[in-house]
Each structure stands twice: as C-alpha cells, then as structure tokens.
Write a structure and sequence with these properties.
Blueprint: E1 8-10, E2 12-14, E3 21-23, E4 36-41, E5 49-54, E6 59-65, E7 68-73, E8 78-83, E9 88-92, E10 97-101, E11 108-113, E12 122-123, H1 126-134
Antiparallel strand pairs: 1-9, 2-3, 4-11, 5-10, 5-12, 6-9, 6-11, 7-8, 7-10
Amino acid sequence: MKVSEACLTDIKKITDYRGNLSVVEELKDIPFKIARAYWVYDVPGGECRGGHAHKTLKQFLVALSGSFTVTLDDGTEKRTFLLNHPYQGLLIETGIWRTMDDFSSGAVCLVLASEVYDEDDYIREYDKFLEYVSDADH
C-alpha cells in the first residue's frame, strides 16, 4: 500500500437523544479479522507513540476521545491525518511506518489489530524499514 491510498473512514454512527453509538464489524467495516484490541491513553504532552512498521499486521485506529495526529510513511511519501472523531478511523496496511503525535489532554486511541502481538513482526529502525520496503521480495 502507498500512503497516497490511505484515507479516513467513516464509521457507522447511530444518533439517539440518549447519546450516540458507533460500531464496526470485522470483515465488514474493517477488512480483516480482529485478533487483538488495545488502547493508548495518558500520553504525556510532547511524546510520540508508534515509530515502527509491521510486516504482516494491519491496524485500524480510532480516536475514542480527544485528538492526535498519525503520520504514515511508505518510504517515498508521507501523509499526516488528524484523528479527532469517534466515528472515523484510519486503516494502516502492512509495510507502512507510523508515528502518533500531538495527543490532546484526555485522548484515547483504540487500535484494532489483525494479529496477536509478535515482536518479530515489528520493524523498529527506520533504516531497516527503508531496506524492507525497497526489497521487492518481502
């Protein structure tokens, strides 16, 4: 995937005078089976999260509360997205470097992942990432 193909995706929003509800279903709204869910919160001001890529794992990110930016990098192009609505998400395909910055106070990032945690799936050094994406055999 090239970052030029990435975009924010609207999530179904059910409005009700008692409060709104949004829902996603695997293989319907999200193009993978959900193997793991986790959330990032209480990020101190000025801190960055992410700073890695995955070889096989795909992720879907949602700002459940507050806001933050996600910068995607495919080795040739970078794009930054503001996540600030709980009814929008960002799909991150494999082989994409990502960083998350500018967390507002009280921000909560939900991550739906296609795989269970596997340290061997991570590419944590940017120069290794550039080697990985330039290798057509991965």
